[in-house]
Amino acid sequence: MLEPEKILFFKQTRKNIIGLGICLILFITGIVIPGNIGLYLNLSGLMIVIGGTLGATFLGYQMNRIEILLKVLKTSYGSETIAPGEVVKILVKLSVRRRLKGVLALQADEDETTIAFLKQAIGLLVDGCSKEQLKDTLSAEMYFFRMRRDETIRVLQTMADVAPCFGLVGSVVGIIGMLAGVGDPVIVMKTVPLALTATMYGLVFANFLFFPFEAKIRERTVKELFLQKIITEGILAIADELHPRLLGRKLNSFLTPSDRHRYFVSLKKPKKEIQVKTLRDTA
User: Fold this and answer.
1) How buried is 101 (Cβ within 10 angstroms: 0-12 exposed, 13-18 middle, 19+ buried)?
2) Are 120 and 139 in contact (CB under 8 A)?
3) Is 163 or 3 the better-scoring residue by pLDDT?
């Protein structure tokens, strides 16, 4: 069976796809209604816009930065971040384990967790780092994570900026062809639409692809930084040996009231799970 978070992700993705489909239908219908759709097809202009945009991007950024951009886009659209309430549950469980079995018992959770930032934080805690060392290390990780994402977003910003410019280049090329046949009204009437379509391509690529991709990565980055902030506060509280119930109350302040009710954390279940696991290990 699918986990609840995966089911929620699929439902949200399906809604996005349905909404995107409706918008595409409206967009294409708006183009078709005026008349001949062939007027909007300009292979020369399309090649100028795509080639110029990619060429400018390759000149401005190293190839590994572009590869990172593709990976980030794949992750942003291919998977959802874990819910903040689930992270709170995990941290409360860690606090209970630390209270019952000591800090070394967290090593098992370090191996099991799939959240890279949380795994690193648990490792630092098990290694005996002080609270200040924990705070400095995790804060540095968050800071440079944000810097790396900002560098990735800048690639999309560059592409969104230059695409309309190369659209104008394509239009100029079309206008030159139009002026070359200025003595023939038939040639002029045929080349005027071609001269303008390149500008349209540049605007469509910038506003229908590059800016939305940038917004998606920004949204994903904000979510991941939010989770990292929760994890940092939770790990620091565990290092201070804060009572699990107080830890739960503190971390719940990060959640909306509806999520606090949905992800209500009871200490009975984590304690029972740890006790059962202890009995199995000693059997």
Assistant:
1) middle
2) no
3) 163
